[in-house]
Design brief:
single chain, alpha/beta, 5-stranded mixed β-sheet, 12 helices, 10 strands, about 50% helix, about 20% strand, binds 3'-deoxy-guanosine-5'-triphosphate, binds magnesium ion
């Protein structure tokens, strides 16, 4: 009996490490194989480590199951199947879903025709040859899941303003620009508001930079709720933008005015120093401009709001 007590403990530890229970329960894996026995074998391995599983009997079936279950993160596919081979399925999956969203692992017993290369060239992220070692299976799967999660995290961080957790300027521009393109084609008009805190510098000067940060965070939370149906972004220090897609102009203006009045009244609730502040807002609606032009126009109105006494909405 070569399994000593220490070995056994180490092995159990490894098993636990690999299982990563709380995470795996949230990972949905699609197993594609024309052999029911193989499907069941792989699904058993997956459920042993708490992964969620779905099955498909061939490529056509796999594409249908994928369309019905957008949360599938990993696809494990056989190669030799009726209708569509595994590498053909990979090509089709990559036409529909990027490597950032879904990982594909090819599995096959026959590797005479450089199948691993074909799989990888067709868009698979990894390849396993049958019969495979279970630990290698878990490791490769886990690495692919890690990769998907890292990409998700990096993308979220790249799009989010660290202080306020609002979408940042980069994300705002990307989203607004793609909507603007569509609006241009549809010949619809779009609106944008620039929102700027009045005399924010004096908040920093009087209460300190941390208090200023608290105000920015509080206001941002409120803004995210108030404009949850629109695109909100932090543009710069104490300057925010709201892009109104497909919303009636009067409705947008009413919402902004309501928000301005809410902040005027409730701003002390945003910080423990109960700092009172107000907002100036510039709004522009027009037939489709470029985003830069739209921002320029809204900025001009914001400037007018500042010049004419602040704490107001100019459109
Ligand atoms: P106005 O009414 O004309 O907008 O005046 P203002 O004081 O609000 O505008 P100004 O542009 O003069 O000052 C903005 C200040 O915002 C200056 C800068 O130090 C501060 N600021 C920028 N980013 C941050 C931040 O992340 N945290 C804090 N606490 N302050 C910031
Ligand atoms: Mg097969
Ligand atoms: Mg300001
Ligand atoms: Mg200023
Ligand atoms: Mg400013």
């Amino acid at each position: 009996d070569y399994i000593t007590k220490e070995n056994k403990q180490a092995y159990q530890y490894l098993e636990k490490q690999l299982a990563r229970l709380p995470r795996n329960e949230q990972i949905l894996v699609l197993v594609v194989d024309d052999s029911a026995a193989t499907r069941h074998h792989i699904c058993n391995l997956l459920t042993r480590h708490k992964y969620q599983t779905l099955e498909a009997v061939d490529g056509i079936d796999a594409l249908k199951v994928l369309a019905e279950n957008p949360s599938i993160a990993v696809i494990i596919t056989d190669n030799e199947m009726p209708n569509m081979n595994g590498d053909e399925l990979c090509v089709e999956i990559r036409r529909l879903y990027s490597n950032d969203e879904k990982a594909v692992i090819g599995i096959s017993a026959y590797d005479t025709l450089h199948l691993s290369t074909r799989f990888l060239k067709s868009g698979a992220d990894d390849y396993l040859r049958k019969p495979f070692n279970n630990e290698e299976f878990y490791c490769r799967l886990s690495q692919n899941v890690d990769m998907l999660e890292n990409i998700k995290t990096i993308r979220l961080q790249a799009n989010t303003d660290y202080l306020t957790k609002l979408p940042n300027r980069r994300y705002f521009f990307g989203e607004a620009n793609s909507h603007l393109k569509a609006a241009k084609l549809a010949n619809t008009s779009v609106s944008l508001a620039m929102i700027d805190i009045d005399h924010f510098k004096s908040i920093n000067d009087n209460y300190g930079h941390d208090a200023g940060d608290e105000v920015l965070k509080g206001l941002s939370q409120c803004m995210a709720k108030y404009f949850e149906e629109n695109l909100v972004g932090r543009f710069g220090g104490e300057e925010f933008a709201v892009y109104f897609a497909d919303q009636d102009t009067n409705e947008s203006l009413q919402r902004l005015e309501k928000f301005r009045l809410f902040v005027e009244k409730h701003s002390p609730e945003f910080s423990k120093d109960r700092i009172k502040f107000t907002l100036s807002i510039g709004f522009h609606n027009g037939p489709v401009y470029s985003l830069d032009e739209l921002i320029k126009q809204a900025d001009l109105k914001l400037y007018q709001a500042k010049e004419s006494g602040r704490n107001k909405l100019v459109n």
